[in-house]
Specification:
mainly alpha; elongated; Homeodomain-like_sf; HTH psq-type domain-containing protein; DNA binding; HTH_Psq
């Protein structure tokens, strides 16, 4: 017996609370060598380990954590509604058809 999976709408993607501008400003302070890394991390709100790691490779770009979303939540909900409507009409889509529908929605 299969379960009906329900996605939780209130769950948010974990986000870093610092910006690339603050990272660049922290790098400038580190180049001046007037303060320590821990003090700089507290001042700019960047975790010290993140600051050390990114400074070592001069990585200034901020990437999202986890997988990148292809469909937003609303589009995904519309796709699910469409698939359920097809099933109720007597045309239950198989896995291949669902993939094709998802690809068309993503375009």
């Amino acid at each position: 017996m299969s379960r009906q999976y329900k996605r939780k709408e209130e769950v948010q993607v974990q986000v870093c609370f610092w910006t690339t501008e603050s990272l660049q400003a922290a790098f400038d302070e580190m180049d001046k060598k007037t303060m320590g890394i821990n003090e700089i991390s507290r001042q700019f709100g960047i975790p010290s380990r993140t600051l050390r790691r990114r400074y070592a490779v001069k990585n200034k770009t901020k990437l999202t954590m986890g997988k990148h979303l292809v469909l937003d939540f609303g589009s995904e909900k519309r796709l699910v509604k469409h698939i359920l409507k097809l099933g109720e009409a007597g045309f239950p889509p198989n896995r291949q058809a669902i993939r094709m529908l998802a690809y068309q929605f993503a375009e």
